[in-house]
Amino acid sequence: MTVNLTLLLVMGCLYAAGIYLLLERSLTRVVLGLTMLTNATNILLLATGGPAGLAPIFNKDLAADAYNDPLPQAFILTSIVISFSVTAFMLGIIYRSWILSRQDEVQDDIEDRRVASQSSFDAEDDADVPEDTTEFTPPEEAEEAPGSQRGNTANEPEATR
Amino acid sequence: MLFVLTVLFAVALAAPLLFRRVGRSAFYILAAFPAAAFVWLMATFPRYTGADQTLASGAPNAPPSVTIAWIPDLRVELAFRLDTLSAVLSILILGVGALVLFYCARYFRPNDPKMGSFGAQLLAFAAAMFGLVTADDLILLFIFWELTTILSYLLIGYSAHRLSARRAALQALIVTTFGGLAMLVGMIVLGTVAGTYRISEIMAMAPELAASGTLVNVAIALLLVGAVSKSALFPFHFWLPAAMAAPTPVSAYLHAAAMVKAGIYLIARLAPGFSETLLWHPIVLVLGLATMLLGGWRALRQFDVKLILAYGTVSQLGFLTLVVGLGSREAAVAGLGLLLAHGFFKATLFLVVGIIDHQAGTRDIRKLSGIYRTAPKLAVVAVIGAASMAGVPPLLGYVAKESVYETFVHYGEQQGSFAAWLLLAGVVTGSILTFAYSARFVWGAFAVKEGCTATPFKSVSWSFLAAPAVLAAATVVFGLWPSPLDSVIASYADLFPAEGKPTHLALWHGLTPALGLTVLTLGIGAVLFLMRRRVESFQSSVASPIDAERTYRGSIGVLDDVAVWVTGRTQRGSLTFYLFVILSMAIVTPLTALILRSAPMPQDFRWFDNPLQAVIGAGVVLGAVAAARATKRFLAVLMVSVSGYGIALIFALQGAPDLALTQMLVETIVLVAFVLALRSLPARLWKREPKRHRTLRALLGIAFGASMVVFAMTAMASRVAAPVSLDFPPLAYEGGGGSNIVNVTLVDIRAWDTFGEITVLAIAATGLASLIFVRGRVDKRRRAEGVATGSVDRGREQFAPTGRRQATLALARKFSSVGRDAWLVAGRTLAPERRSIIFEVITRLLFHSVMLFSVYLLIAGHNAPGGGFAGGLMAGLALTIRYLAGGRFELAEASPVSAGTLLGGGLGVIALSAAAPLFFGGQILQSAILKFTWPVFGEVKFVTSTIFDIGVYLVVVGLVLDVLRTLGSEIDERSEGDADDEDGTDNDSIVEEPQIPDIATSPAPGSRPEEEEVAR
């Protein structure tokens, strides 16, 4: 099939601008970027429908390929409405993030950084086990701090697990 | 047998309730069920042993079986079969199970809170174990196998407050699950090669399978890995001693009599068919012997009586594997005899240890002293058990061991190889160690020791001692009278080819080499026990070269390190980083594929379909670039809208009026939504513009855009078939009864798609509502009646800095006429300076027409541009106008039906219209064309998919309404609250009642005349 360069170029520019915005920290720009990506994708779908044609309103005197392809149109229609609802939802997130933390920016997850820098020692898995030779000690005596020889980790109370 | 299985599981489920009502004695009730099952088993025993073990299930003289279809596509079924081997294992499972439960009733503290779940788990374990040995389907066997693993985890971890129990439980779980997974792979391979998962069928075709080569060899080896890990053989043996952190009844049942026997069971099950496969003997014999020696040697240096038994069990499991896995008729007789003997004596000994621990408060042999004096009956029971373990005549342990010796003597004679004689020597050495640690156990637990005061020991009640005593009695009885066992086992042993004269379990075989070996064993064992101090000190001076547990912990530690390292490298916590990675991959991977596969490129190009398209396209691109460069929030939004409207025009030019209409409407509503949502945020997008990685971002964006162009071209050039949609026009007109092909596609041809989409809309709307309202949808309608005139959004302008604005404001208020509400219902509620008479008039004129037009779009959409989406959005636009002109109370007045009701109602209409055809004998979502004549309208053609479209319409209206209610009304109300907080003085002009959900209780209008005054 012949390729319509205008449509593809418009699509490419929208994708480029959309990605540029998406990679931003500002949530507003991220949402705008997503909107543009939707638009770009809709153009892509439209381009696959072939050249401009008649509106797909049935007329029994016309051949099936005289219309613009109705299937991509149905997809695009779905896509437009879905992206509307998603945008509305994202706006809700932006507002909420602003209300809660006066932030309109995507923050780095500090917890992930903490995970990356932690040691793999885990008292539950790696501390030495004291030997017991009976089951009949009262529970409060059997309560034990794991890894008592290992310094600070020993002070973590069991109850926090 | 299915009945037994079901009852056991059902009682286990009900057990916690029983314990809450009856307390500790509930153990007696629980014990009654396996005991009853045991009686049933005994009563029907000849049916299992008398059957022809090789016959296919269902044949007249085959072992009893039950088969229920389960997953026919995968050839997996609930197949059960009770033959001799299963029945022998069931003796231990049900018999010992009943005794252990009985014993528990005296073992636990009367008010132990966790007793209920413990009892349930123990009984469920018995059921799972019974299922495991009766399962005749590999997959079913695996399921029961893993059930026992999980229950073992729970039971070992009973004292969850102890680190040792938690650690041991997890370790046992990981090790046995690892083996279980290997086994599952083996089972699937075996089942696939054999074409069935039915164990009895696989065993029937075993000779061909065993000869078929590598695949089956590997499968069998994998199955053995499962068996070896479950039965705690070297190198997995370490989990079993650690599992002694479990309560002692659990050790007696799971880790002596039942669960660890599952591996032995599997070996015994497979041995008749597969013991000649390539990897069988190396695995079974080497690991078995190594485990036997290792366990026995380690047992000699333990000071905890329970650990002596635990290492003893490890040793005995190696022994059992060795014998059962040897794969001859003689070995089968000896192996099954040993299996039963071990079940009896080891359970006895564990139960004895439990009593000692319970009464003395310790299991340390350095602290226990003189217990045979205070508890002679207990000592007798223990000595019987230990003697049986040591192989002292005339007990069952001796009978079994004697025939094992005989088996290996014959094996050595037959094979004549060095390895065979080495095996015999190894078995004898292992038995010597067994004698030594048995003696160490009895001495350690009961003897009077020098320098040790007699351990205080409470007297043991008969009910506590009953269970081990019964087991000890069985050891004695079957030792003296082994022929019933022998005849039972013979029917299993007959599965192996007979060689020479059949062997039997018996107390006296004459003066054989085996007898000589027994004497040797007892003698050297006794010496080893007497030299125990030297053995201990020798053991402690020699560090063991390999410590399997340390290896295990080391490998788990390495796994942890790798996990932390990988997580740290990949999970950086930066969304931008993730997006960079994902997008780069999205560019690189398909591009590589295109280059490698030399994908086709299009030959025909055209610049545009018509010149206008190029002009509009340029506008769209300009809008996009401007949006990317904008630094003000609303400018960026506006520029995105510009490109969005441009796209609507492109749709229109391309021949897609539905799309153009929808895009226009959506673009408008989205613009309003953006403005409403972002009004609380600062005007500038950044405090300072982020310059980092800007070039990189731009490059990635351009690369992505360019790649998409290439992909699109390739996709279009690759098209070889005619589009499927060429069939759509006739389909839509004749099948769907509509001329608008796109609309019929949405509501009929691809209606499932639309159904899904509509659900997403409802979810997104609800998500938005919950994000903003936080505590519920607040669907209650808030009427304008109770709201004082001019009170809404009356705010900060009063304190505007310049006098001129203040004067303007005062003027506006003076001239605003609030007495007349001709145009909008709730327009009067707005502060005068917020109102626009022109807007209100236009709204008044437009609203109903737009609403009517939306209904027209909905109904006509089947044949002309329009439809539920466009109609719904049009109605939403009408509501938007009402809200913008008259504020939140106007919106509330304009929407008598709440957003939640619209969404739910819409979904309901769609679901009903989808399901309704079923009642008329049609299919889901099928549509029908009804033609009838109405008096005025004449002939009417009604297509039922219109009802579907009405549902779509309702959901879309609900969505828009939710957007307006949340991003509009709710934020209005909150930001007004903010204004109050800031200036804090103007409170009396604002009526607080609307914020209280229940309007009915608020004072009637006019009850505060002074406010009216102020408003004027």
From TrEMBL, chain A:
Transmembrane as a keyword?
yes
Q: Cellular location of this protein?
A: Cell membrane
Top-level taxon of origin: Bacteria
Q: What keywords would UniProt list here?
A: Cell membrane, Membrane, Transmembrane, Transmembrane helix
Task: Give me the segments passing through the membrane.
Answer: 6-23, 30-54, 74-95
**Acidic residues: bias regions:** 122-144
Q: How does it sit in the membrane?
A: Multi-pass membrane protein
InterPro entries for the chain: CPA3_antiporter_subunitC, NUOK/Mnh_C1-like
Any Gene Ontology CC annotation: plasma membrane
Q: Where is this region: Disordered?
A: 111-161
Q: State the similarity comment.
A: Belongs to the CPA3 antiporters (TC 2.A.63) subunit C family.
- Stated name of the protein: Na(+)/H(+) antiporter subunit C
Q: Which organism is it from?
A: Arthrobacter yangruifuii
UniProtKB/TrEMBL annotation, chain B:
Show the GO cellular component annotation of the record. Answer: plasma membrane
Q: Where is the Na+/H+ antiporter MnhB subunit-related protein domain?
A: 838-961
What organism is the protein native to? Answer: Arthrobacter yangruifuii
Is Cytoplasm tagged as a keyword?
no
Protein's GO biological process: monoatomic ion transport
Q: What is this protein called?
A: Na+/H+ antiporter subunit A
Q: What lineage is on file?
A: Bacteria, Bacillati, Actinomycetota, Actinomycetes, Micrococcales
One MF annotation (Gene Ontology) recorded for this entry:
antiporter activity
Give the stretches traversing the membrane.
24-43, 84-103, 115-133, 139-160, 172-195, 215-240, 278-300, 307-326, 332-357, 378-398, 418-439, 460-481, 506-531, 577-599, 611-628, 635-653, 659-678, 699-721, 755-774, 837-859, 865-885, 897-920, 940-964
Domain named NADH:quinone oxidoreductase/Mrp antiporter transmembrane: residues: 135-419
Q: Where in the cell is it found?
A: Cell membrane; Membrane
Which residues fall in a compositionally biased region of kind Acidic residues? 978-991
- Which positions fall inside the NADH-Ubiquinone oxidoreductase (complex I) chain 5 N-terminal domain? 72-118
Which residue intervals define the domain MrpA C-terminal/MbhE in the entry?
694-771
Region: Disordered, residue numbers: 972-1016
State whether keyword Transit peptide applies.
Answer: no
Q: Where's the MrpA C-terminal/MbhD domain?
A: 619-682
- Keyword annotations from UniProtKB, A to Z: Antiport, Cell membrane, Ion transport, Membrane, Transmembrane, Transmembrane helix, Transport
Membrane topology classification: Multi-pass membrane protein
